[in-house]
Write a structure and sequence with these properties.
25% strand; globular; alpha+beta; nine-stranded mixed β-sheet; 13 helices
Length: 506
């Protein structure tokens, strides 16, 4: 983890073959000669370049997924690997096929445990949706079956795996990625003694599939947001706090969320150990944890394949105390953001200083902006971000009273309307009786939209239950923002009177 600087998903190129071969041999140590030859890989790349992808860690191949398109109705329910690949020639590939068939997926042993395989499966699903295919299918090995073959039939073995009575790492992984077993294939892969040549036909159905004779629809960019409404509670130490944070990251990533948003000062419980020092000293002691928290969040972003917005934490720079947060992208890169407007209480009690940095951030799900709590109440900031192309504004907040929450809530909703963007806000609930100046919290996490026909009439996409620990999952469609900008009933960005005023950064 500590050595990972970058993770990228790329198309496999024939120039990668030697490195590809080494990675495949390392991934199948029990079958050192079972690797694809260069002419076979060249044919796959020529016939279906989008279906051949690699995961690179620090620019080195860590894993690969190979696929072809097939006319699924041409294969009976009991096909073999040799059948589906045309005796390993891939003559069965059809450019107009209706199902993507997985030929191979592997991850080098040293990179297992980082959930890189899930990225490859997610790519296949997204490609399947983009190509309007019926689904994804492949024959899944059951390498632990030989341990139970004397007492269990393949059907009984699979049933026990499904009910968690037997652990099969391959089958468990595939089912956890939404692939469902449909039948048992006998004699599927010659020489697969671990599976006794049995395989499970696994399928994933594309719920967005439309038959070709229907009217074509525009492919949308759907982004899934995971908001964490955090319960303030005391923790023994930093490890306990981050264990709870990972629980929530795991929960929202389990729903294939693209973002996880934490609240402002979610790590305030760590000040309890220094409560005897007074408010200003206690928060400065708490700032000593920030660097490690950020590093741990970055690892979680990589491991769970999700972009994490860390809410905010105290940080000391040149002996000045700031309220900052980090965008931890799932490719391993990070960005720092600052609270620009500190509240009178933050300045008076903690001696906090406002930051100076404001910018929109590029992500694999469009451009985003991040404003911490009070900053959302200054419309100039979000307007500047909108001019930089912001699609989604994230607002981590912390409010102790209902009127404080109402200021954030209503200002955030206004930002969505005036800037033609989505706005997600997430706060903390509960209380911290052993932390001065952090006694009680009031929150309702929400996702706001513009108000037009393509959006909810009240501009509220989703809302959590008030003052209850929970997650909130919501999908937002970025293409709707493009349509709104061009064809909306009102066009707040286009109709600005720039002949009368201008807004710019200094």
């Amino acid at each position: 983890m500590q050595e990972i600087e970058n993770i990228e998903l790329e198309y496999l190129k024939i120039e990668d073959y030697n490195e590809f071969k080494q990675a495949m041999v390392a991934s199948y140590p029990n079958m050192p000669e079972a690797y694809w030859k260069e002419p076979q890989i060249e044919k796959l790349i020529t016939n279906f370049p989008d279906g051949q992808v690699v995961i690179k860690v620090n620019n080195q191949i860590a894993g690969c997924a190979l696929s072809i398109l097939v006319d699924y109705n041409q294969f009976d329910d009991h096909h073999t690997y040799k059948d589906i690949t045309g005796n390993y020639t891939f003559s069965t590939h059809r450019p107009d096929g209706d199902v993507m068939y997985g030929i191979d997926v592997f991850i080098r042993p040293e990179y297992r445990g980082l959930r890189l395989g899930r990225r490859l499966y997610d790519y296949r699903k997204e490609l399947c949706e983009r190509l309007n295919l019926r689904g994804v299918a492949f024959g899944g090995r059951i390498p632990n079956y030989h341990k139970f073959s004397n007492t269990l039939s393949p059907k009984e073995y699979i049933d026990k795996v499904k009910h968690q009575e037997i652990h099969d790492p391959v089958l468990n992984f595939q089912m956890s990625n939404d692939f469902h077993p449909t039948r048992i294939l006998k004699g599927y892969l010659e020489g697969d003694t671990s599976s006794e040549e049995y395989a499970v036909l696994l399928e994933w159905d594309n719920i967005y599939y439309e038959k070709p004779d229907k009217k074509a629809t525009t492919i949308k960019k759907i982004v899934r947001l995971g908001l964490i409404q955090w319960q303030m509670r005391l923790y023994k130490n930093l490890d306990d706090l981050m264990q709870q944070a990972e629980f929530f990251v795991d929960a929202v990533s389990g729903y294939r969320s693209d973002f996880a948003l934490f609240p402002e000062f979610f790590n305030a419980p760590l000040m309890a150990d220094n409560n005897h020092l007074g408010e200003a000293a206690a928060i400065r002691e708490s700032a000593k944890h920030t660097s490690e928290i950020v590093q741990r969040f970055s690892k979680l972003a990589i491991s769970y394949n999700i972009n994490i917005i860390t809410g905010s934490m105290p940080e000391i720079v040149n002996d000045r105390l700031y309220n900052v947060g980090y965008l931890c992208r799932r490719d391993g890169s990070m960005e720092r953001y600052e609270k620009l407007h500190v509240t009178p209480d933050e300045a008076k009690v903690w001696g906090m200083t406002g930051g100076t940095q404001l910018k929109a951030y590029d992500t694999d799900c469009g451009k985003i902006g991040i404003l911490i709590c009070y900053d959302s109440e200054f419309p100039e900031l979000s307007r500047l971000l909108a001019d930089e192309g912001m699609d989604i504004l994230f607002v981590p907040f912390l409010t102790d009273t209902q009127n404080g929450f109402s200021r954030v809530r209503h200002c955030a909703q206004a930002r969505a309307i005036e800037n033609e963007c989505y706005v997600a806000i997430a706060g903390s609930v509960g209380n911290l009786p052993k932390v001065h100046n952090m006694d009680i919290q009031y929150a309702q996490s929400m996702v706001f939209t513009p108000c037009d026909f393509a959006f909810p009439s009240n501009g509220v996409k989703a809302e959590a239950t008030q003052n209850t620990e929970m997650i909130l999952i919501a999908d937002v469609d970025l293409d709707l923002l493009r349509e709104l900008n061009q064809f909306g009933s009102v066009r707040n960005l286009k109709d600005r009177r720039k002949d009368l005023f201008e807004l710019r950064k200094k």
